[in-house]
Amino acid sequence: MDNHLFKSSRSVSKWPFHKVLVANRGEIAVRIIRTCRLLGIKTVAVYSAADKTALHVKLADEAVCIGPASASKSYLNISAIIVAAKITGAGAIHPGYGFLSESPEFAAACEKNGLKLIGPSSQVIALLGDKEQARLTMAAAGLPVVKGSTQVITKVADALDQASQLGYPVMLKASAGGGGKGMRIVHSPAEMKANFPVAQEEAMASFSSKEMYLEQYLPNPRHIEVQIVADRYGNVTALGERDCTIQARHQKVIEEAPAAVLSDDVRAEMLKRTETAVSRLHYEGAGTIEFLYNRDGSFYFMEMNTRIQVEHPITELITGTDLVELQLRIAAGDELSKHHIKTRGFALECRVTALTPGKITGLHLPSGQGVRVDTALYQGYVVPGNYDGMIAKIIVYGDRRQQVLQQMQALVGETVIKGIKTNLEMLAQILQEPDFQRLTTNVNWLDKLEKRGPNANS
């Protein structure tokens, strides 16, 4: 890792917490456990009955079952996770992404019980989780914002009223989280009546919250996000940006860093304004500011994710950092230096998704120079159908975008996952599409491509 990021080094024996409970599952739980091992920090895995044989359970120093397969009774069960931390003597909790990672109630429970949450305070999470307050806060901090609803919405009648004020089309979102869960594009009152209860139910299942939010819909933007880290002393560092435009039904599929569509001037402005805005939040930890970007160079704040992102590996590769280590060191009280981060090269990530549950009967994951695969898969593992379907991330790093694209095409073609259906065929198609290679896509491009069917040419 780039040692210039902090003002001082930290020895293995001087961590204020010597055991971290990982309040998550799958590849992100494995990812966190591996960095903790390198730092000499003991780990506790929590798991549902469906995850008894999961890789994160096998890798952690200790493991505690926290409930049945249902996420609401296990990975979203705040009291069970707090009890697991107490009985194992864990001094800190890393929430990963998804589940409780952006729950102010969970953060408050950690604070009440003397547990260090690896992330911002409950007050900051609550502020940024309230989409309207987040917009007002960021607008006051100098970021351009997209128009949105003026209050949290729990009833379809209120959604209809707010949408009529904003003007259709609008984006319906879950207020408590991201990742495409509870998100719909709504073009008319009739669509609102049909989509609102479905999106709200999805939000409840994913985040234990029925609160929704509306946002003005921009038809053909790209999705650009800035990765930041901030310490308790007010220092904020932007670790470059990522282009997350390739999305299926608002769920990211392929990400790249840096964003090749940005000019140097726009990139510099976006990073500087992001650092300035976050410095006003009393923010601590890793976070991501998400923007909608138009080809004329304009960009608009959408939301801030107060956690580590799925796509964090591509930022790690172009900056030479370990974001999980950064999170842990910031939580331990280390102070960031004023060191300016320089990015090098280009990185691409493809998310491999299970389309069906089942047992892995054959597995070959790619390797080679500049190749990284983050996964919790192993031969014989049974992929449960209870959770998000992402099962692996194939990441490639190289000098130039075209070189990396060519290598990724070969790697996706080499990957073998038998026993379940996956999206590998779709990934292979995207990588060879001229629009993707020429950077002429937008956030709706993949949905339209899927409607045209396999092997459609742009």
TrEMBL record:
Q: Where does the ATP-grasp domain start and stop, copy by copy?
A: 135-332
- EC number(s): the record gives 6.3.4.14
Q: Does the keyword Manganese apply?
A: yes
Keywords of this protein's UniProt record, alphabetized?
ATP-binding, Biotin, Ligase, Manganese, Nucleotide-binding
Pfam families per the UniProt record, alphabetical: Biotin_carb_C, Biotin_carb_N, CPSase_L_D2
The record's listing under SMART domains reads:
Biotin_carb_C
* PROSITE patterns attached to this UniProt entry: ATP_GRASP, BC, CPSASE_1, CPSASE_2
SUPFAM superfamilies assigned: Glutathione synthetase ATP-binding domain-like (SSF56059), PreATP-grasp domain (SSF52440), Rudiment single hybrid motif (SSF51246)
Source organism superkingdom: Bacteria
Domain Biotin carboxylation, residue spans: 16-451
Chemical reaction(s) catalysed: N(6)-biotinyl-L-lysyl-[protein] + hydrogencarbonate + ATP = N(6)-carboxybiotinyl-L-lysyl-[protein] + ADP + phosphate + H(+)
Report if keyword Zinc-finger is assigned.
no
- Molecular function, one GO term: metal ion binding
Q: What does this protein do?
A: This protein is a component of the acetyl coenzyme A carboxylase complex; first, biotin carboxylase catalyzes the carboxylation of the carrier protein and then the transcarboxylase transfers the carboxyl group to form malonyl-CoA.
The protein's name = biotin carboxylase
Q: Which organism is it from?
A: Limosilactobacillus antri DSM 16041
Taxon lineage? Bacteria, Bacillati, Bacillota, Bacilli, Lactobacillales
